[in-house]
Amino acid sequence: MESPEEAAHRGERVHLRRGSLRDPGPATLHLLPCDVLVSRPAPVERFFTPAVRRDADSLHVSFRGRGLRGQEVAVPPGFSGFVMVTEETGEGLRGKLNFSGDAEDKTDEAQGALERDFDRFLGATGSFNHFTLWGLETVPGPDAKVQRALDWPALAAAVSTHTDPVPARHPLPSHQV
């Protein structure tokens, strides 16, 4: 799997299918502290959710024999969460996932060549306003990468807010300025 930097170096462009954001169904998300080598829908509720136990400060579950502890995490105010998938690349969009919101067959040769060469298209398949963050044996703390990423919008807004300069404690006399 290549990194975003490698994709950018190749000149790949990513396009969002805005129509897919209009009304995607609700999604239940679990962020696990492991790598899953498959990227496709899975019946998580069938295998994972029923086993979740709650106590006063966290959630508990066992996944493949390992104890996990977790917590519900809300999407920051003013933001929306979406489950995004990449459309298949190849011969245009014929026979592929079509997130454009229309039933039009995308067979235009120029568009097919463009997509084949260096464009990727993303579309939303679900939406969420919270997810479950799991840690191995312990609840992920405020220093977890996900928590820090979710704190970033508020921090960015705070440091970007225009304020008047703080006056000096001992202003210099006007003839020394």
Determine the strand fraction and express it as a percent band: 25-35%
CATH domain class: Mainly Beta
- Gyration radius, to the nearest Å? 23 Å
- Identify the overall geometry: globular
Cα distance spanning the termini: 59 Å
Oligomer: single chain
- Helical proportion? 10-25%
Major sheet description: 5 strands, mixed
**Number of β-strand runs:** 8
How many discrete structural domains? 1
Strand/helix succession: HEEHEEEEHEEH
The total of helices stands at: 4
CATH topology, by name, is Lipocalin
Order of strands across the main sheet: 2-8-5-4-3
Structural class: alpha/beta
Report what the structure shows.
20% of the residues lie in helices and 25% in strands. With 177 residues, it is of the alpha/beta class. It has one domain (11-158): Lipocalin (Beta Barrel). The longest helix is centred in the last third of the chain and has 16 residues, at 145-160.
